[in-house]
């Protein structure tokens, strides 16, 4: 019986290019989420001040 030779994958250190690509991808994804959040907050603030200017809402509680 001949001994079978099994090819094992040798573990290497981290690939610098792969790490940079993963970092850029995660950074762009997180930045995109942050910008979407920021634009949503701007839209809410703009809508609030538009309604306030038109007189649809009031920030002062009326006295009874």
TrEMBL record:
Q: Which family does it belong to?
A: Belongs to the cytochrome c oxidase subunit 5C family.
Q: Where are its TM segments located?
A: 16-34
Q: Which domain of life is it from?
A: Eukaryota
Query: Where does it reside?
Result: Mitochondrion inner membrane
Q: What is this protein called?
A: Cytochrome c oxidase subunit 5C
Keyword Aminoacyl-tRNA synthetase on entry: no
Functional summary from the UniProt entry: This protein is one of the nuclear-coded polypeptide chains of cytochrome c oxidase, the terminal oxidase in mitochondrial electron transport.
Record keywords, A-Z: Membrane, Mitochondrion, Mitochondrion inner membrane, Transmembrane, Transmembrane helix
What coarse category fits the chief subcellular location reported for this protein?
mitochondrion
């Amino acid at each position: 019986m001949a001994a079978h030779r099994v090819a094992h994958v040798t573990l290497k250190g981290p690939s610098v290019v792969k790490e940079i690509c993963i970092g850029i991808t995660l950074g762009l994804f997180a930045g995109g989420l942050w910008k979407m959040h920021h634009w949503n907050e701007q839209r809410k603030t703009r809508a609030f001040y538009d309604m306030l200017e038109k007189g649809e809402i009031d920030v002062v509680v009326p006295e009874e």
